[in-house]
Specification:
heterotetramer, A mainly alpha (101), B mainly alpha (187), C mainly alpha (632), D mainly alpha (508), A: 101 residues, mainly alpha, Helix Hairpins, D: 508 residues, 24 helices
Chain lengths: 101, 187, 632, 508
Amino acid sequence: MTIGLTHYLVLSAILFAVGLAGVLRRKNLLMLFFATEIMLNAANIAFAAISTHIGDLSGQMFALFIIAIAASEVAVGLGLLILIYKKYGTLDLDNLSIMKG
Amino acid sequence: METVAFYLFSILITGLFLVTAFSRNILYAMSALAAGMVLISGLFFIMGADFLGAVQLVVYSGAVMALYAFGMMFFDATRDVKEKNSPAGIVFLLSGISAVILVAIFAAPKIGENIKALVTGTKGADNPHVIGEVLFTKYLVPFEVAAVMLLVAMIAGIVLASKKMDESLSEIYIDADPETVAKEEQK
Amino acid sequence: MENLVYIALFAPLVSSLFAALFAQKPKIQLVGIVTSILIGISLLASVTLLLDIHESGKAVSVTLMDWIQAGDMDIKFGFTVDQVTAVMMSVVTLVSTVVHVYSNYYMESDKSFNRFFSYLSAFVFSMMVLVMSDNFLGLFIGWEGVGVCSWLLIGFWYERKDETRDVNPSISPSWAANEAFIMNRIADLGMLVGIFMIYWNLGTVKYSEVFAHLDQLSHGMLVGIGIALFIGAMGKSAQFPLHTWLADAMEGPTPVSALIHAATMVTAGVYLVIRANPLYSQIPEVGYFIAVVGTFVAIFAASMALVNRDLKRVIAYSTLSQLGYMFAAAGLGAYWVALFHLAAHAFFKALLFIGAGNVMHAMHDELDMFKMGGLKKQMGWTFFYMGLASLALSGIYPLAGFFSKDTILEVAFNEHTYGIWFTLWLTAGLTAFYSFRQVFLVFFGDERYHEIGAHPHEAKAYALWAMAPLAILAVIFGFYKEDFVEFVTKLLPAYEMSEHTHHMVWILTLVTTAIALTGIIVAFIKYSKGLKRDLNFEQNNKLYKLLYNQYYIPVLYEKAFAKPYKELSDIAWQEIDMQVVDATVDGIAKAVETTGDVSRRAQNGNLSTYLKWMAAGLIFVTLITVISVVIK
Amino acid sequence: MSNILSVLIFFPLIAGVFGFFVNKNSIRVYGIVVAAAEFLLSLWLWMSFDTTDAGMQFVEKISLIPEFGISYYLGVDGISLFIVILSTLMTLLGIVALSIKEDLKNMIITLLFLEVAMIGVFVSLDVILFYIFWEFSLVPMLYIIGAWGGPKKLYAAIKFFIYTFAGSLVMLVGILYLAYIYHATTGVWSFSLTDWYGLLLPTDVQTILFWAFFLGFAIKVPMFPFHTWLPYAHGQAPTVGSVILAAVLLKMGSYGFVRFSLPLFPDASVAFILPIAILAIIMIIYTAMVAYAQKDMKQVIAYSSISHMGVIILGTFAMNVEGISGSIFQMLSHGIVSGALFMLVGVIYDRRHTKLMSEFGGLAKVMPTYATIFVVMTMASVGLPLTIGFIGEYLSLAGFFKVSPIMTILAGTSIIVGAVYMLSVVKKSFFGPLANPENEKLKDLDSKELWALVPLVAIVIWLGVYPKPVLEPIDNSTKALVQLMHKKAQTDKAKKIILVSKDAKEAK
């Protein structure tokens, strides 16, 4: 059995689900960031796999841009996290609900 | 050989990411994440996306994880994260269902067969070479935008994180918790 | 001739507007004089027209201007003066002139003197429009116009407060005015429906065109129109069951009662039936119904007049009763007889009312006849006039009432409607009785007025002179019967008695005169020597109480219509409008608000929850996509 | 001056904007001058109006968004001409009679903007333009009620706004659907009403659209059971707000029926005569009863408005020239009479700061002129012949009599129940003894109030005696309208019920 596109896609789906589970479960903002990274990576895998499969580089390009975005996100996000932590002394989502309607 | 590598990587990645997602310790989680990313770059190499693999290694496993590591210094990373996790049922139900759906979609025979390339004819060429060509022709504008974005993000990161922590330019202290403020001042 | 028509019509309007200029000023004697003169001019014009038509035999028609033109409807202000109209105009303006002159005396110390004349002249104008119009809608203008003037005049002393029925059976002038207006409106709806029927079936509302094309209509339609118009007539002429307003209308100043509620306005209904004679002569069954209603009202009203102690109310009931006579005659097809009685009645009933006005002045507005008596000494002329009018009303030879009333009885006999004849005959006796009961109670017997501290005095000379024309006409009008018949039958169908009736006439006359005299004699025996009250009888006799309380009909109306309407209105407002309709609207708004309030809780500020919702949404959307793909 | 309609629309708009820069002390004069000029312009419109022409006149058409067929398209015919004049007149008199002290400047500017919206609604022939003005009219009214109103002003203002707005949104859907159908049928986009008149719709489509438009118009009229915003709006609005609301804004609904529902959906209109007539009869009788139950003078007039609008609706759905002309005339008559009555209530409210009839009684003695004008208006309101109120009511009822005699008799009770509540107001407020000592020193009408009211009295009597100058153009345009409907009617029932007048038939 050769490893085809489907295998990669399924792997990416599973990883995405793992990330999703993390996003949903974690209350610590930092952990949420990690989980988001997982989901981004899952998407990257799918992009790269399809790109390879059909011989179109666009997929890889997108993966590349995703990586760029992830990097920026981390840079800005971490800055914000630090601010939040300084202001509230916590990164726990349960304690960060000033937007309550 | 490829099969073995794929399964090995897959299992490892999944395991590591599970650790990331559910570990109580931030350090463990981060380490597992970094390891998982390295392994993903391995997957990319298997696929033949050499350049992407390299970028993954450099940017993700290197730069991003390093950023996290630096960022964590601001937090108390040694302590276990205390979370009041919401009922696991809903979480697993939601993520489980989405996993099932996604897997079902991707595994459906229709998907793999019906994908068609928009731009073909680049296969077999030297990967980084071709990428370079595509990146600086077809994707030039997005590339430049991404560059600007990274610059902005860098500046933003600096601005946000380098503020003097006890006095803010914005009014973030105005409705801050008085206890927290008191603590800050004690420090 | 056309100019005379306009003079007769617009002199009262000018008069009214002139008086209206000073309506808010204190009394100006000039206003009374000028208005009287203007109405007098109208009288002159009317009489000239009457004589002219008498000579030429031709009607005068004028068209003033367009009024309503919409679709195929084309209604103009058109006026026709024919025989019937000329008679009506002369009667109306004559009584009006007398009343105007008399009002100068009666209202001399009223602070709203000028306003009164303005209303009174406006009434005359409306009445003239009513009788002169050449189409049904023009008639309706006058019809409503007299209604409004009547409303204004009944409620003339608007500042008086509401009393209970025990103190004042009419409650208050303003209440009585509203009652009159609203009751008339009920009838007016009938009239309006009649006009609609005429319009949609014939395409016109002009008398001449309508009556010329009546044969195009089915019998059922004719009956419908006849009934609808008669309903209108019932309101204005206060026929049962819309009669209660007339007695309450006595709250108005007495000249008003004389003019509006005796001589002119209330006869408008009779005028309508006479005017529509081509219609009613084709539907004898409706005519018979009208006659029956008239007969019933005649005896019904007369019975109430028997026991009432209120001077004006007695005359009001008697008016009602006499209107019944007129309807009986008109319903039986004797239109000229009805018109004749209308004119005769106008003269002697106005006279009677004006006399009552003199008495009221003398008694300081006391109306209870039981508190009068023996006024003959101080008020000889008034006694003479009222006695004369009462004789005429009772139908004693040779006064006008004898001729007119007798003819109505003959008609009833001639038509073999013996029930009607008998009832009217009986009513004639009752009429004589209550008329003279009134005369004797007021002018004969012991002087009970000392108890209320009144100092009776005779009316001023010019007031008494003003009454003279009416008195003279009440005496001599009957002798012009033949001329009258000849004149009006040029327009109205001639009514011939059968041979049999001709032979019976002298017996009928004798019988009628006999019962009238009996009535007078009974009244004389019982009341001329002074008042002997039987309190036990008054308090315990059921029949007496029934009659005295007008068969409890006003109370019944109050309980059956006015009160439930008020309560229903309150329910409609508070229960239905507020609690159902508006509450539904507010309920919808509330539901939206509640939904928002509930869904607001989802916005709890916790990112985790949002993320869960997001995941759920993701699943939802992908599921739908998958399903839709699979189904395809 | 062929673009007089644009002038009519934009003059108050510009004047309103300039109003912001006018000195506070002279704003009243400014407002009166502007409104008077506008009124004179509208009279000029009437003078140069060709009364024999039944079609649209003074037409202006400038394409705005040609891709969608939306244009700036104005025109006036006999049906809308007098409502335009009524709008300018009532605005003028409303400003003359203004007794508000606070924020007078904003009030006058708001009224001028309101005038723009009102005129815009009645002269727009492009449906999108119509809809914009229709909705825009809500805003100034919202301000007037919400800013100068009584104690429950916010509730009333918001209820008024949201209720009518909800209705018009449904109408908007109808408009868009109709435009879509027009596009599907002809292949071009157009929102021009005159284009739409040429469209023959299948009856089932007509039904849907009829009810969509119905909801928008019915809430505005307001028809039972959508009427409950009106008593609150009137009860809380300042006098001038009530005057304009009753006189003009309600007419937008009934005008909509005549302008849109009848000619666009003749078959559906005929098919739904029965339910609408039933609603109208409920409006007439039920709201008259509710009016009778009121304790507040202004609420009586407010509910009486609904009752009278019932007659208008009935006349509109008579489907013959008599009824429709009558209902249009009744719109004017009701505008003038109810406007005057609201002004009159405002007069006593200014003096006593209460509208409860139990506080009054015997006012005729201290305020005779006031009482006289009130009685004249009462009589016009109950439809006395030779006043303006009679002609419209008579024609509407006469028209509907052709459709259903029984229902006309039921509706005709309006002349009875109308008299009941109006006369009881007069009796309770003006007659009887002067019981309340606070009323003893009341002043009669001052010159400002007389200036506002006497013209209305004059109109009431003038148009009652000689309605021809107004009725004739209305009648001409109505004849054309009915003919159009008859031509468009597809079902046999509609052909039978829509009654073309005889002379129009002959003219053919």
